[in-house]
Specification:
This protein has 229 residues and is an all-alpha fold. 67% of the residues lie in helices and 0% in strands. It has one domain. Helix 2 packs parallel to helix 4, helix 4 runs antiparallel to helix 8 and helix 5 runs antiparallel to helix 7.
Amino acid sequence: MLSRQLYRSLFAVIVSTAVLSAATVVAMKLPTPRGSFLPASFITHSMMLVLSVVAILLISKRRLDLYGFTRGTFRFRPQILLWALPSAMLATAQALALPRGQAPHMLFPLTKIQTVLFVWIYASICEETLVRGLFQTMLRGASAADTDTRVGLSYRVTMSGLFFGAMHLVLIRMIGIAAIPIAVMTGFLGCVLAWYRERTGSLLPSILIHALFNIGGAVPIWLVVWLRG
């Protein structure tokens, strides 16, 4: 049992890391043109989505439903919108702590429209397809009967969260040590998203909550900047 779980884990890490690395390399070779409406992350996320879906199709024999491409047991309830609050509180504290006239670096130079389209929506879809679709399903062997409504902080949930947090350590190149708390927070977020994925069998709640975290991390900053004039 242990050897099978270890094999699945190593295979999942290798395949998912290969997809992530390939997407990063392609983005470096094919940068977006200057002045383009598309942000620099667009090619990375697009390749991440395409390669993840290709890997899923090859591994799953076209059983996309086993990889979260289904509604599963997910039913929307308004309470789920409260998941925007944790990142909103942190973003508010960050914005208020900055000197007047200085804006948090993570949202700039993206415009508000770019943030909505490419951070809130597109990034959430692409990253969840890779981590909760490909990686997490590979950990559990793609068993349709493996959805458990009682799932807690299981091995798969923990591994999914750790992988998601580790993905964001690449920000060290851009913002230095400030990337560490971001990686820790995204690791926590990853566990939340993985829990919903396990419980419902669907990527829909993961994508929605991922987007809500992104929204919560942006709107308070915009409001504080606007109020300060």
